[in-house]
Amino acid sequence: GIQVEQSPPDLILQEGANSTLRCNFSDSVNNLQWFHQNPWGQLINLFYIPSGTKQNGRLSATTVATERYSLLYISSSQTTDSGVYFCAVEGGRRALTFGSGTRLQVQP
Amino acid sequence: AAGVIQSPRHLIKEKRETATLKCYPIPRHDTVYWYQQGPGQDPQFLISFYEKMQSDKGSIPDRFSAQQFSDYHSELNMSSLELGDSALYFCASSARDRGPTDTQYFGPGTRLTVL
Fold first, then answer.
1. Does residue B99 have a pLDDT over 80?
2. Mean residue pLDDT across chain B
3. Phi-psi region of A83 (alpha: psi -120 to 50; beta: other; left: phi over 0)
4. Dist CA B112 CA B115 (whole Å)
5. What pLDDT is stored for residue B102 in this prediction?
6. How far apart are CA B16 and CA B42, in angstroms?
7. d(C-alpha B46, C-alpha B35), whole Å
8. Cβ neighbourhood burial of A29 (10 Å; 0-12, 13-18, 19+)
9. Which of A93, A94, A99 faces B42 most closely, judged by CB atoms?
């Protein structure tokens, strides 16, 4: 099946800093989503982005499908951004395969 | 906007008992997915339904079964529970053939603890 790798696995930032999270996938995809899992376990949709660039407030994402990677940018980070960020892709079967996540901690 | 509803939110069971988890998809969504997330792990796909028919199957144990009903809600039935079944169970829904994108929207999850 399709493989999804995320980097870095852990990230500690000071409030106000910017960061870039990366997701590499091993095959062509029909769907790519970025999620934020908060400390209470909720999976929050950030972006549906199988290709191209999108922005939502302080967050933006870019997927280069031909090179099989996606990037999530977080600007001016806040403590509420803490949690785990997952990239998930759908290729072949109609189900998401998740990466192992990037655990982000934003310190005040 | 309406979201995916899951019940119960928390469930505690003993080994070898059974459990039933329920999922109510976003209105007019035609596809339901179930995922299992163990402690410290990423969510793993279990099974999906499209228009009330099983669509895809992932790493779902034989002790588990699921179905989607005429009103599109879905139930995940788990029997002979084991300690390793303790996890967060997510239901997601999408409008595979009824919307501009195939975004999967996740419910809040059911946290199952097996003692």
1. no
2. 94
3. left
4. 10
5. 83
6. 25
7. 5
8. buried
9. A99
